Each structure stands twice: as C-alpha cells, then as structure tokens.
Amino acid sequence: MSRLVTFSLLALITSVTSVHEQVPFADFKRPVQGFEDVTWLEKYGSQIDQPFSGPLSFSHLPYTRCLENEDVDFDIAILGMPFDTGVTYRPGARFGPYAIRSGSRRQREARGYTMSWSNNPYNSGLKIIDCGDVPVSPFDNALAVDQMEVAYSTLLKRTPANPTQANQALVSAGHPRIVSLGGDHTIVLPVLRALNKIYGQISVIHFDAHLDTWGTYPGSITEQSRVTHGTFFYLAQQEGLISNTSIHAGIRCKLGGEVDLEDDQAVGFQLISTDDIDDMGIPTIIQRIRERVGDSPVYLSLDIDVIDPGLAPATGTPEAGGWTTREVKRIIRGLAGLNFVGADIVEVAPAYDNAEITGIAAADLVHDFLSMFVSEKPPAPRQVGPVTRDEL
Ligand SMILES: [Mn+2]
C-alpha cells in the first residue's frame, strides 16, 4: 500500500470517527436528576468531609476544647501552642498550629496507613483527638509561659481513654501523651516543667539546626527576657528538669566559638551535626540516639528548621544546608519503642511559606510521631519481591 493511500484511509477513518463521537446536545442527560422533594440526608446520607472542606482540626480528628471540657479523655492529644514572642529573628510561629492543621487536611483515619510504618495510628486502638489551642497571652510572656504549663499539666493528669491499650512497658502508660504544635521553641520550657512534675528528670531528643542551650542573648537584661527560643534548654537544665543524657540531631548553625559546644555539653547534650549523616549514615545516627537515651523517659522536640529551608522555608531562623524531610522521617522511624512521654514540632511560621510546603511537611512529621507512639519497635523493612530493600 502506497503512503498516499495509507494517509487517505487514516484521514477518512479519523473524520468518520470524530463525527460519530459528537454527542448532540439534545441527547445529553443529566447524570443525576436535579429537583426532587428530598432532603440531603434522604438522598445522599451522611458524607465525610472532603480533604478541602470542613472545620480545621489535625487530620480531621475530633476537635475538642479539652482544657474546658474536663470529661473528655484521650490517649494522645494534639495541642496547639500559638506563642511566638520569644524569637530572636522572624516572628510568626503563632500561626504554626493553624498551618500544621491546614497542611494535614489530606490526612485522615480512612487513609492513615503508611507503607513505611505498616500501621494506621488513627485506628490503632488508642484514642487520638485534637485538643485545640492554649489561648496564650500575646502581651505578657511570663503569663503565656505559665498558661502553657498549666494547660499541659491539666491534660497530662487526665486519665487515658484506653490505659490497657497502651504499651504497659512505657513509663507514660498511666498518663496520656501530648503532641504540641508550636509556637516558637520557647514553648518547650513550660512543657518540660509540666513533664518534670510527673516523670522527674527526662532525656531530650532534639532535632534542630541550633543548640538552644545558650545562657543569654544580647538584649536579655531582665530575668524574663532570658526566657527565649534559644535559651530554654539552658534554663531547663538550671531548673533540674532534664537529665544529662540528651542529644541533638541536625546541628549546623554558626556559633560564638568552641565555648558554645562546651557549654552545650554542660547542659547535658551530645551532638549529631548535619554533616554526620554523610559520614555515619542514618542507621548509625539512629543507633547513637537510641544508645544515648536508653530506656529513660524521653521527650522528642523537633524544630522544623532541622530540615533544609528549600524543603521547609517557613521558619524563624532558617539555616542553609539541612537534612531532607525524607531523611528526618527515616531517622524518626528508627526511634520507635523508646520511652516517649511527649513530642512537639515547633517554629513553623507560615507567613514565609510557599505553597504550604512547610505546613505539609510538618503535618506529615506529626503523622510520623503518632505512628511512632503506637509502635513498640521500628517497622521491619518492607519486602520487595523475595528480598528486603536493605538486601538489594
Ligand atoms: Mn532552631
């Protein structure tokens, strides 16, 4: 068959087909009949909210003002702490709880299972709810810090919803656990004060670009002005709230000199730098962290600035050259089974965000915290055919 004939035949077939596929307007039928004398409920029944609809709560969890509703119980609470008047650079983390909840809108119980954890924290048997925000004063830092401590203590003392469902090996088995949404990093001081009343001294696993163990800042000329997002660990150590078995991960900030590292050790921290991930790899980082805190009660605090600003730009004191979101997630996965008494994610300041990158990353990390809290050990590597990924 010549090329010309082939071309003509194709053109003919195409033109005939296109004529037949045209649906005349007169034949169009509405897929769903419109006006009927029925109510929404009769016709459509109860429908869950779309990811983009409904009131804003973390992962569409029930939203309850737990501080005022004293009969409400839970095993794990999401609690917003919209405080941001302790920052040294860019303010705006008071909108962090909003941004993290907004970033979580595509998360929900119906699709809460992840391959990486092989679990769904929302149907694990533990009751997880969003307890709303602590209504902190934006005018008086001493007042706000006290409000956060009282709020945290109030929720920590509540009887868990399913105490028998929790891992009884955990020191926290008799108390619920709280995942706090900052807020700037100062919020951890009242959190540690509240935890100390229940657990005594605890270890801290601290993901951050910065040490946060400085004793003071320029401008800290009153006692209250020493309470900042970069001094709270120093103050916590001075108050006897934390043990000397804590560890940083992801540090890369500029320092005043070696003296800062010596002071940091005195506050009780070992240090894993950002670059260590290239030299020791993720499994060794996980091992170092686990060995450092052992089976002591441990608190996880994650400053979103541990992640590279390209992947999480919306934060108060960004530092270039950080870890990827995936790397941080992978390290967190290796920490399951430690004796966690609580966790937070802080320093999300959405005014500096683009396309919700930071809010979505933070919400995903909170999902990981919840998956970690309901796991008794790190998940096994997934099978890929007959071998595991690690064996490939
Ligand atoms: Mn930081």
From TrEMBL:
Keyword Disulfide bond part of the UniProt annotation: no
Keywords attached to this entry: Hydrolase, Manganese, Metal-binding, Signal
PROSITE patterns found in the cross-reference section: ARGINASE_1, ARGINASE_2
The UniProt record lists the keyword Metal-binding: yes
Cofactor(s) required, per the database record: Mn(2+)
Record note on cofactor: Binds 2 manganese ions per subunit.
Region forming the signal peptide: 1-18
Entries under PANTHER family matching the protein: ARGINASE/AGMATINASE, GUANIDINO ACID HYDROLASE, MITOCHONDRIAL
Family of this protein: Belongs to the arginase family. Agmatinase subfamily.
Protein known as: Arginase/deacetylase
Organism: Dendrothele bispora (strain CBS 962.96)
